[in-house]
Design brief:
heterodimer, A: alpha/beta, six-stranded mixed β-sheet, 15 helices, globular, B: elongated
Chain lengths: 322, 217
Amino acid sequence: MIQFKQVSKVYNDEVQALRGINLHVKEGEMAILIGPSGCGKTTLLRLVNQLETMTSGEIILHKENIKQIDKIKVRRQIGYVIQSNGLFPNMTIEKNVMIVPDLLGWDREKQKKRFHYLMELIGMNPDEYRRRYPHELSGGQQQRIGVARALAADPPIMLMDEPFGALDPIIRLRLQEEFLQIQREVRKTVLFVSHDMDEAVKMGDKIVLMRNGEMMQADTPAKILLHPKNHFVEEFVGEDRILKSLKLYTLRDLVKEVNLCSITDINDKPSINLDASLHHVFSMLLHQGYQQLAVVEQDKLLGMVDISVIEQFIRLEQQKLL
Amino acid sequence: MESLLNFINQNAEQIIQYTIEHIELVSIAIIISILIGVPLGVYLTTNQALAETILHLASIIMTIPSIALFGIMIPLLSIIDQGIGFLPALIALILYSQLPIIRNTYTAINNVDPKIRDAAKGIGMTTFQRLIRVEIPNGMPLIMAGIRTATVLNIGIATIAAFIGSGGIGVLINQGISRSNHTMVLAGAIVVSILAIVADLILKFVQVKFTPKGINN
C-alpha cells in the first residue's frame, strides 16, 4: 500500500513541482501516473524511493512513514524499473538480476533458485542467459531483465518509470501483455509512470492524471474515459475516449447488462467469441461491413451483436459510473 | 650499428643494473601515485569546487620542466639531507603522475551513465557499494589509460633524474653526453624506449584483465 498525504515539492524555493497530492494506491493495485511532460509524474514516483525529497507532506508505505525508515532499507523493499533499463554493463545477467538479493546477503543456493524462477517468469531461458552481458541482449530482452531485477527480492512495491517507453510498438505491446500476466501472478502494488493513454487504459487499475504538479483526476480507467472530470482530462484522454473505453469491456460484460439481438439468418455472418473485447467487435463491424456478428460461446450461439447494442451498453455503463 | 651492438654486449651487466634501478624507481613512484591519485580522483567527483582547483594545480605541475623541478627540490630536501638521489626523483615522478591519474579517474567516474547511477541508487546501494560495484568497474578502461600514460611519462622523466643521482638508465645517457660518446647515448635511448613500450604493453594486458567483459566495446 502506498499513501500520499498532502505531498508537495518546491524546487529552489520557486518552482512548484507538486502541490498537495493525496493519493491512495491499494495493496496489489496498479496505478498509472500520466500527464504531459513536466507535470510531476516522475517526481512523484521518485519521492517514494527517496531519489527526490519532498518539501512537505507524508508518504506512508504499509503503515510506515518513509521518513522514519532508513533510505537504503526502503529502496531494497521497492522494485525499481526505469525506461533505459539501467542494467549494469559490467555485470552478467545473473549478477544484474540478483543484485538486490546479493545486497541483502542471500546465500548462493537461494539466489540460484530465485534466478531460475524469475527467468521462467519473464520467459527467458535461465541457463542460456546466466553468463551473458546486457549489451548482448535486444532492447526488449534487456527490459525484461530490468523487470526481473526489480522483482528479485520479492518487494511488495514496484516503481516503474516509463518501463516500456523506449521500445518499438510491437515489442512494447508484447511486454505490456507479459507484465500484466506477471502482475496477475505476483500481485504487487505498482506505481507506473506513462505518457501513453492506451498503455494507461490497458495496464491500470487506476489512472492518475496530472498537470503542473496537481492531480486532475484519479479514477478507474472506465471512469476517466466515460466521465472526465474537467476539460483538461477530456482533452488529454482524447476525442476517441468512448472508443478507447471499448477496450475495457468484453462481450461477456456486455451480455450481463443488455440483451443481444435475436438470432436471425446467420449463414453469411461471421461469429465471434464471448471473450472478445468490444473494441475488437466494433472494429470488425466497421471493417467488414457486416450489420451484425454472431456471438458464440463454445460453439453455442448466444445471439447477435450490432453497433446499437454496443452503444446501449456503453450508455448504461456511463450511467452506472455517475 | 656494429659499435652499438658491441657496446651493449660489453656493458650488458651494467646496462641491466641501470635498467633494474630504473624499473624500481618508476614502479615505486607509480604505485604510490595510484594510491594517491585514484582515491583523490574518486573523491573529487563529490566536490566540484575542489576538483577544479586540484586539476588546475596538477596541470601546472605538469608544465614545470623536470630539470627545474629537480633544481627546486635540491635546496628544499637538503634540509633533511636528501637533496639529491632517490627521494627527490621519486617525489618528482609522483607529482608528474598525478594529472593523468587524477584526471582520468575523475572523468571515468563522472562519465558513468547517470541512468545506471540512478538505478544503482534506486535499488538501494550505498555510496560505497555503488563505487565498488558499478562506478569503478565501468570506469576501469579510462582509469587504466591514465595509469598507462603516467607510467610511460615516468619512464622518460626518470631518465633525467639521473642528473640528481637517482641512478637508472639516465646515467648511461648522461655519461655518453659528457664524454661525447654517441654510442652510449644511443644505447641508453634505445633501452628506455624499449622499457616504455614493454611497460605499456604489460599494462594494456592488465587493463584487459581488470576490465569487466561486459564493457569491452
